[in-house]
Design brief:
The complex is a heterodimer of chains A (324) and B (253). Chain A is an all-alpha fold and 324 residues long. Helix content of chain A is 77%, strand content 2%. In chain A, the strands form two sheets. Chain A has a two-stranded antiparallel sheet with strand order 1-4. Classes of the chains: A mainly alpha (324), B alpha/beta (253).
Chain lengths: 324, 253
């Protein structure tokens, strides 16, 4: 194919191959579940349960999409989620004031993200190493200050619970928050200066600097955003369960990375997809529950998630290669 | 008319290494200056000082007659003063579209910082028609940079500089790793800059490329200017001979 033909070929289907591939994959997974356990997957209740659990994964996956688009990685967010939720729980329990609790929760998330970003940009430690350390440090810190004990938070019946864990026309509100945030993040990434700078920083840091982009600032801001999203997700989980556990967030790291990769965001930076992350979150979040509901043994969960991730990233990589 | 760039006795060290050791360098209005020299001679450091990537330790620099404070000079202020640099290879981000590359760092946004996408795409199409003169290559404003050839990429970068109406376009080895035909495209862009009444600094170690488009040549060696010639006083062969002399004395030392 000549270059001219290749360019003319960038038509609708060609441009959205990844998205179509993703939708086919989701349909295949759904079909598999419907066939194996029709009584569960043809009734609405399982989908309603997905709508209240998937947003926790999804909110953090949105933040991680920015980090990966920037060519960096964050491993610390599950611990940040725990720390922020702890602050929310203890501040709310002692003051009963939502605003104080909310601010300390989100503030802690932003602060940890900012520290990650500062170490990455100003000292030059690779993000995988910084955030690996931070993951342990924050987990340890939240265990220390909480003394390792769970906190039951009196959230039941509050107005804020209606807003963060209630139902609107029978739909769990978490899912509406996730949908709204996804739309916001889409515009932030593809229609806002900040998102454009994130993608350029991940693509060609030098050229971004040469054009006057403050790459350090962009990175610190993106890490802070990741921290804020982890805090936000922690708060949602807290409202859903009304109890803070010291182990909160454990097990989320790989699931969320899987959601972002299955969605089609590359780990080399410069490219990212919010739509992919949105669908990927539902796919990964639904699988675990779905496999159990389908009557398969729990052992199958990991196996099938693994299979799906590998298939998905092979497809995405092949599509990307063809586009070049 | 006042000179675009006037540098007096500029020094710059990195750690203990003196990259620039007392350079006087001027670029006049509507002048194309070719900067020649070996690898590591200090060419890139010199232009990075002008474009605000590096500061300088000693000396004085004036841009359009205005004295520059080395502590405050940066890429953004250089852009504002009409100085644009096109770096070899690093000029554009490959995985992004043409229009995003054109407006990076100078986006057309609303008050909240959201990009006016349609306006930027329309402007890019105008730039492609009027400045890049890309015809029949099938690229449009939404093409990804990775689908362009090397010469086209340089064309995009130089057109970007022309679009933002810069008074001085600095080109750092723009023809490296390009085919002959692609080189010709880049040289045409330099001539277009001159035609629009603007100035250009062209860095290269390929004399044959620099010669036909430059008004003046400056030779840099180990951080100092060792020779300066007007094109009308020297032929390509003589200039080549001079350069060989410099490299000879260098190897003898």
């Amino acid at each position: 194919m000549t270059k001219i033909e290749k360019r003319a070929d960038q038509k609708f289907f060609y441009k959205y191959t990844s998205q179509f591939g993703l939708i086919i994959m989701v349909s295949a997974v759904l079909l598999f579940f419907i066939i194996t356990s029709p009584n569960v997957f043809l009734s609405g209740s399982i989908y309603l349960s997905f709508l209240s659990t998937v947003p926790t994964i999804g909110l953090m996956a949105l933040g991680l999409t920015f980090i990966l688009g920037m060519g960096e990685i964050d491993l610390s967010f599950p611990s940040v989620m725990a720390l922020s939720a702890f602050l929310f729980a203890s501040v709310y329990k002692s003051t009963g004031n939502f605003l104080f609790a909310f601010l300390s929760c989100i503030g802690a998330g932003i602060l940890v993200g900012m520290i990650n970003g500062l170490i990455v940009t100003k000292i030059g430690v690779p993000s995988i190493v910084v955030t690996l350390g931070m993951q342990f440090l924050i987990r340890g810190f939240s265990n220390l200050i909480s003394d390792g004990t769970a906190i039951v938070v009196p959230l039941r019946g509050t107005i804020s619970q209606q807003i963060f864990a209630g139902k609107l026309l029978g739909i769990p509100v978490q899912s509406l928050w996730f949908l709204g945030m996804s739309i916001l993040f889409y515009f932030l990434l593809f229609r806002h200066k900040f998102g454009e700078h994130v993608l350029f920083a991940g693509d060609n840091q030098e050229s971004a600097k040469m054009m006057g982009v403050n790459v350090d600032f962009v990175k610190i801001a993106a890490f802070s955003l990741m921290g804020a999203m982890a805090a936000f997700a922690g708060m949602f989980d807290l409202y859903r369960m009304r109890t803070w556990w010291p182990t909160m967030g454990e097990g989320y790291l790989m699931m969320i990375m899987a959601a972002v990769f299955v969605g089609g965001t590359s780990m080399f930076g410069g490219e990212a997809t919010i739509f992919g992350t949105f669908v990927g979150s539902f796919m990964i979040g639904a699988l675990e529950a779905g496999i159990v509901a389908a009557g398969l043994k729990g052992f199958w969960t990991r196996f099938i998630i693994g299979l799906l991730i590998i298939c998905a990233v092979i497809v995405h990589t092949l599509i990307r290669k063809r586009k070049k | 008319m006042v000179n675009i760039i006037e540098m007096k006795n500029i020094h710059k060290s990195f750690g203990g290494v003196k990259a620039i050791r007392g350079i006087d360098f001027t670029v006049g209005p509507n002048e194309v200056v070719g900067v020649l020299g070996d690898n590591g001679a200090g060419k890139s450091t010199l232009i990075k000082i002008i474009s605000g990537v590096h500061s300088f330790d000693e000396g004085e620099m004036y841009i359009k007659g205005k004295k520059i404070n080395p502590r405050k000079h940066c890429v953004k202020t250089a852009h504002k003063m009409g100085i644009e640099t096109v770096y070899q290879e690093k000029a554009l981000a490959e995985k992004q579209t043409l229009w995003r590359n054109i407006f990076l760092g100078r986006q057309m946004t609303n008050k909240l910082g959201f990009i006016k996408v349609k306006k930027e795409i329309d402007e890019t199409q105008k730039i492609m028609r009027e400045l890049m003169k890309f015809r029949g290559i099938g690229a449009n404003a939404e093409s990804y940079i990775r689908t362009l050839s090397g010469g086209e990429k340089q064309g995009v970068a130089i057109s970007r500089a022309m679009y933002f109406d810069s008074d001085l376009v600095i080109l750092d080895e723009p023809t490296m790793a390009l085919s002959l035909q692609e080189v010709k495209k880049v040289l045409n862009f330099i001539l277009a800059v001159k035609e629009r009444g603007k100035s250009c600094v062209y860095i290269s170690h390929n004399i044959a490329n620099v010669y036909p488009v430059s008004d003046r040549f400056v030779v840099i060696d180990r951080g100092i200017i060792v020779g300066s010639y007007n094109r009308k006083d020297i032929s390509l062969e003589e200039l080549n001979e001079e350069l060989i002399q410099y490299t000879k004395t260098k190897t003898q030392q």
